[in-house]
Design a protein that fits this description.
eight-stranded mixed beta sheet, 13 strands, elongated, DUF6879 domain-containing protein, DUF6879
Amino acid sequence: MARQLRFTGTDSKVDGCLALHTDEETGEIIVQGTPVTDPEDLAQLKHFGPGEAAVAVPRELLVNWGPKEMERVPELVDRATFRRLFETFKHTAWRLETRRGYASDREDPDFQAFLATGSAPCDFSDPWFVNIKAQTEAGKRVGRVRIADRPMTTEQRFLLDYARHNAAVGEDIRYLWREDAADLPAEDFWIFDSRLVALLHFDDADNITGIELITEPAEVVRYCMVRDAAMHHAVPYDQFATTE
């Protein structure tokens, strides 16, 4: 069975040939570099066994992108701590949404109204909207890219309709078809100020089961790279709505 590899990072400035990948199952680090083939060089390697290969990589590749801990211990936080991040971020808050639906949306009375009428109402006195409006009016940026299926699920149609309310308080809502997002990870997360990631864990019923904070620089940069790729390909929600 083929490994499930996740791109970790590269310091290459041109062709990206020198890189690290992580095996999602075992946690092993796959080093991608220039093969060492000279017999005299190989003869100097201790414990070099049959079937093994040697590669040469710049030291900074391992320093910048290698794991900093032998075993990563997730830092889990409660909902109250998570909510405070939206009040204390300094510059930017951005989310990638990849699921086909969310239990929290299905439990929302606005979702039931959407099912009944085809249009979702909104209470702009809700604390979320009050806070986001205050943050964006202060010059901070809040945005999301949502991955949508073709055809869209009912929950995705609800969120597409609801996007106008998010936009009304200053959120930048963008969309991307799932077939155009094959290179993006199937993860839901928020990035705050390009320095902290809140990774959202879900069960099979689309309920949030945990909120994990990630601050390790190499991991945060990886999520920022995902953000940049998603933003490059995504289109504004109102433009997307005319094509679905």
